[in-house]
Design goal:
The protein is an alpha+beta fold. The protein is built from 9 helices and 8 strands. It has 2 domains: 122 residues, Phage tail protein beta-alpha-beta fold, CATH 3.55.50.30; 99 residues, no CATH class. A 3-stranded mixed β-sheet has the order 2-5-4. A 3-stranded antiparallel β-sheet has the order 6-8-7. The chain is globular.
């Protein structure tokens, strides 16, 4: 096991490099004195992270020092679940986001038997078990209009009715009438009904796409959490948005990040 001194040196090198990289990647650096948002912190990339047999408690202390967030670990709940503070964590990755590092830490600590989760809210990061954080239900609205875009179906394509064409040709040759009989209807049929059909088809297609997306989420994102499968979570379509009420973990699966409890 590495010593605490070595651990601190490694972490400081990683943190300094990461902060430098964030500064060079930012097109418009934050104004002096402005505290980076939680989302900015979790999205920043770390060029290298290396934990080798380091206690979980020290790993979380590094996260707190690096992010300057208030990191709260529900140790009692973790210990009741069999995870001690000195649980050894070994991670070696490059060019990953801080949020990805957190997921790796949770996977390493929980193993195959226990699923951990975190919640970032304002300047606070809470780490606990999925069951513990899953007791808090949040309502979030997701705009999914980009996922519902479908290529247009051209309903106004010219259509030739041979029988109608022959009848119109015969009528135009009788009584000296000019070309184009049939009450003003063109040779290839009126266009108004085709445009209405296209609009109706687009609405039907968007509705079908929303239902397909809804079913995909229920079937693949924590299936047991939804009402349809015996859980408590709900998901309702409204126009081009989805209104989702479910646990923090589910929202993290959907958007990768949850901030605040609103």
């Amino acid at each position: 096991m590495r010593t605490i001194t070595t651990y601190a040196v490694v972490c400081l090198v990683v943190a300094s490099a990461a902060m430098a990289q964030v500064g060079t990647q930012s097109e418009t650096p934050p104004p002096p004195g402005r505290t980076p948002s939680t989302l900015e912190l979790l999205n920043q990339r770390l060029p290298e992270v290396m934990f080798e047999e380091l206690p979980l408690e020290q790993v979380m202390e590094f996260i707190a020092d690096f992010t300057q967030m208030n990191v709260v670990v529900n140790w009692q709940i973790l210990e009741d679940a069999g995870i001690e503070r000195d649980k050894a964590i070994t991670i070696k990755v490059r060019n990953v986001r801080l949020s990805q590092v957190l997921w790796l830490i949770m996977k390493e600590a929980g193993g195959t038997d226990l699923r951990l989760a975190y919640r970032a809210s304002g300047n606070m990061l809470v780490l606990s078990t999925e069951e513990d954080l899953g007791q808090e239900m949040l309502v979030k609205v997701y705009d999914v209009s980009d996922l519902l875009v479908r290529p247009p179906r051209f309903m106004n394509a010219l259509q030739l009715d041979a029988t109608q064409a022959l009848q119109q040709a015969a009528q135009s040759g009788q009584g000296g009438q000019g070309g184009g009989g049939g009450g003003g209807q063109g040779l290839f049929g009126g266009q108004g009904s085709g445009q209405q059909g296209q609009r109706d088809d687009e609405r039907d297609g968007a509705g079908a796409g929303m239902q397909e997306l809804l079913q995909l989420i229920v079937d693949t994102v924590e299936p047991d959490s939804w009402v349809q499968n015996g859980g408590l979570g709900t998901i309702q379509p409204f126009g081009n948005v989805l209104v989702v009420r479910n646990s923090i973990l589910v929202h993290q699966r959907l958007s990768g990040y949850v901030e605040g409890g609103d």
